[in-house]
Structures are given as C-alpha cells and as structure tokens.
Amino acid sequence: MYTWVRNRRRARDHRTDHRSSEASGQSKIQTPNSKISACCVLVAAFTLTVAVRAGTAELPLERYATVTVEPAKTSIYVGSVTLTTPGFTREGVTYSANYTAKVFPYFFYNEKGRIWIDVPDADLRRLERGETVNFTGHARSDDGDERRVEGRAEPTGASTGKIKVRIFVSKRIELIFNTTYRFPKA
Fold this sequence. Notes:
This protein has helices at about 1-25, 30-55, 120-130, and strands at about 65-70, 70-75, 80-85, 90, 95-105, 110-120, 135-140, 145-155, 160-170, 175-180. The chain is α+β, with helices and mostly antiparallel strands and about 190 residues long. An 8-stranded antiparallel β-barrel has the order 1-4-5-6-7-8-9-10. The longest helix has 24 residues, at about 30-55. The termini are far apart.
C-alpha cells in the first residue's frame, strides 16, 4: 500500500509541475526528439555563423591586376600639361604603364616614358575597405630623365575613386594632377 500511495503522489506532483511549467511556457519533459531538435538548432546556428564569416572573407587581389586612370591636366606658367596613360598593370606590388605628357603651347617639352607606382597588398585591402591610401613611385622618360612620383588614392565607390599624383620634374618644380581611377568590376 505504501508503494501505491507514493506512486500516486508522484503522479500528482508530476501533473502539477507539468501544468505550472505549461502556464509559464516551459516544458520540463525531455524526450529523445527534443534533444535531437536542440542538436539540429545548434548545427544550423553554427552553419549560419560559418556562412556569414565566409561571406565577409576578403576577395582575391586578382581583380586589382589592372587599373584605368583618366587623362589628367594641370596648369603651368602660360600653358598646361596633359598626362595620359593607357592603363596600369600590376606585377608584384608595382603598377606600371607608359605615359605621354603633352605641354601646350611648348610642344618641344612633350615627352613619353614609363611610370611605376608601388601599392602593397595591404594598401589594396585598405582601398577595398574605403580607406585613403598614399603611394610612391618613379617615372623615366624615353630620354632617360628620372622623376619621383607621390600620390594619394581616395575611394568613392567599390571600384572607383579620386587620385592625386605629384610628379617632381626637378628639385623646385612639381606637377600636380587630379583625376579618377577605375578598377574592373568584380
């Protein structure tokens, strides 16, 4: 008889606990199915976290292998200089291109040559995040004249931006060109 009373009390207590937990929105009953469901929820949350992190992974730098720079013009004493490059290609950390500088009205100062600009991978990642990047480089005319180059690139979009280039023609003379750049779309 004692066992029968004890079992009845347990059943009554269980019903009372079950009702009070239902009223509070909690269930104390755990079945194998509820454990499997909880496991599925954890796996789904982990998969979602990995997918979100993979979506924010850095894109490969190959998309920055070429860049187009629009022709730029600057004023000089009683004239102007127009700098044109067909497009820069990247090898290692250096972009290079041929250039043409046309001096108006002093056509006899026109020159052609090659320009190199160093942009490390870390700076490309900064551009990708929308940060301004400073760069350095050099140019050599077809006549062998060396020129120091400095500049700043400021992104205005995902693959475009403004660029300011300073070319030091001599110790006292620097030409400043303001133009835009464009990477191919990803």
